[in-house]
Amino acid sequence: MSLGEDGYDEDHGLTRTRLPEGEGDPYAPRRGRGGARAGMPSRNLITVVGVVVLLIAAIAFASRGGGSGSDDSEKSGDKVSAEATAPSGVKPVGGKTGGIASGFARTQQGSQSAAANFAVALGGDGMFEKASRHAIVDAIHTPDTARDLQSKLDQAYNAGFLKSLGLNDDGSAPKGQTFVSRTIPVGTKSTAFNEAEATVEVWCTGLVGIAGEGSTKPVAQTWFTVTEKLRWTNDDWKLTSSEQKQGPAPVSGDLRASSADEITNAVNGYGGFTYAR
């Protein structure tokens, strides 16, 4: 890798910003508040069920104190793509399975679109109630993966964990309050691809918390990257595994925090997207 004086990486076409001495790296992990507390799932359990995209972020939240057409290059085997998301000219997917987008193209862009939509589904509030969680897992995973996951996820989303988030035993929010868990993909990157399997990284931001009068878990923003492994199964892309790591996280903006009512109205008033390139 070679960097010019202006911080331009000539080998990879990336611009890097150099911070003044002593200012620190805004992407470095930040020290959490309060540490682990009673009632939270163990680290081993989190590792076992690492396929839950927002579970780690939700646990971190709980530990806080109160307050199909394409060019041939897409089918060239293990080509790695770090290009910016751009229009492909391919019509977005029109199918849905269990309310989740389906029918993705058997291309590199199709796998990226699938990965982005799967991240949204796994990071949504539907994962916190048993019936909807089972439907989501079945819809987006390969059949053998889904069978193995269901009981493990039921153990992870136990009453103690839900209570630590301020939820009822069935995963619902207390009366008069709104539970918010939403994932928003910022970008995708293929790290491996062929027509049978793909690996895609999805950089995401998310919202998690409870909005409403008396909430001790206010809605907060998270940043994380999900690495998803997909397999072409029954004429569509399906998940075989996914794992999550924190960041990259930008410097927090100097914005006034909205009221609980404003957050509730926004969550109820703005729907999600079907992601396609």
Structural summary, described in words:
- This protein has one domain.
- It has helices at residues 43-48, 55-62, 108-122, 130-140, 143-156, 159-164, 260-269, and strands spanning 8-9, 14-15, 95-97, 100-102, 178-193, 197-211, 220-233, 236-246.
- A hairpin with a 3-residue loop joins strand 5 (178-193) and strand 6 (197-211).
- The strands form three sheets. A four-stranded antiparallel beta sheet has the order 5-6-7-8. A two-stranded antiparallel ribbon has the order 1-2.
- It is globular and about 50 Å long.
- It is α+β, with helices and mostly antiparallel strands.
**Average pLDDT score:** 76
Element order: H for helix, E for strand: EEHHEEHHHHEEEEH
The low-pLDDT segments are 1-53, 65-81
Number of helices: 7
Broad shape: globular
Q: Tell me the major beta sheet.
A: 4 strands, antiparallel
Fraction of residues in β-strands: 15-25%
Q: Could you give the topology of this structure?
A:
Blueprint lengths: L7 E2 L4 E2 L27 H6 L6 H8 L32 E3 L2 E3 L5 H15 L7 H11 L2 H14 L2 H6 L13 E16 L3 E15 L8 E14 L2 E11 L13 H10 L8
Antiparallel strand pairs: 1-2, 3-4, 5-6, 6-7, 7-8
